[in-house]
User: What shape does this take?
Amino acid sequence: MSTGTAIIEDALKEIRVISVAVPSSPEQITDGMVKLNSMMQIWLDDDIEIGFTPLVVPGDELNEVESVRNGIVTNLALSLASTYRAEITQSLQNEARKSLDRIKNRYQTICVPDKVVSSTLPLGAGNSKGQDARTFFPKGGTLDG
Assistant: This one.
C-alpha cells in the first residue's frame, strides 16, 4: 500500500518530469491525483476490482493491492505524459500494456451470460408422455449451469 504522492512521483519520474535535482511541485502532485482518481475509476467501471480507496488529498493511502502498484505507476505515467508533453518510451508503453493485461487477468470480473439455445434443441431424452409435454426448448430458453 502506498500514498498517492509516492505513486504520482514515481509516475512523474517514469516520464522524466521530476528527478532528484528537480522535485515535484504541488500543482504536479494535485494534477496527478486527479488523473490517478480518474484512471482508477475507469478501471472500476471496467470491473477491475483491486480494492483501492480514492484519494481526497494526495497524501492519503491508496490502499491498493501490492501486486498492482507497478501497473498503476506505469499507466499513470502514460496518462500524465500528455499533460507535460513528455516523451513516452517504447519500453514504458510495453510495460504499461503488459501490467494492465496482468491486472485485468487477475482482478477483472467477467459476467458470462446464460446460453440462449435454439428452439429446435430437444429437451431431455425425448420423453413426450402426458398432455402438452415439451420435447424442445421454448423460444429464447436458456441452459442452466
Summary: The two ends are 38 Å apart (CA to CA).
